[in-house]
Amino acid sequence: MCGIVGAAASRDVVPFLVDGLKRLEYRGYDSAGIAVVAGEDVRRVRRTGRVSELEAAAAAEGLHAPLGIGHTRWATHGGVTESNAHPHISVGELALVHNGIIENHEQQRQRLQALGYAFESQTDTEVVAHLIHHYRAQGASLLGALQRAVKELHGAYALAVIDRRDPGVLVAARMGCPLLVGLGEGENFVASDVSAIVSATRRVIYLEEGDTAQVTRDAVQVYDAGDAPVVREVHVSDVSLASLELGPYRHFMQKEIHEQPRALGDTLEGIVDAGGFDPALFGKDAAEVLADVESVQILACGTSYYAGLVARYWIEAIAGLPCAVDIASEYRYRPVAATARQLVVTISQSGETLDTLEALKYAGSLGLVRTLAICNVPESAIPRASRLVFYTRAGAEIGVASTKAFTTQLVALFALTCVLARLRGRIDAAQEAAYLDELRHLPGSVQHALNLEPQIALWAEQFAPRQHALFLGRGMHYPIALEGALKLKEISYIHAEGYPAGELKHGPLALVDEQMPVVVIAPNDALLEKVKSNIQEVRARGGQMYVFADADSHFGPSEQVQVIRTPRHVGTLSPIVHAIPVQLLAYHVALARGTDVDKPRNLAKSVTVE
Ligand code: G6P
Question: Ligand 1: distance of its center to the CA of 403 in Å?
Answer without folding.
Answer: 10
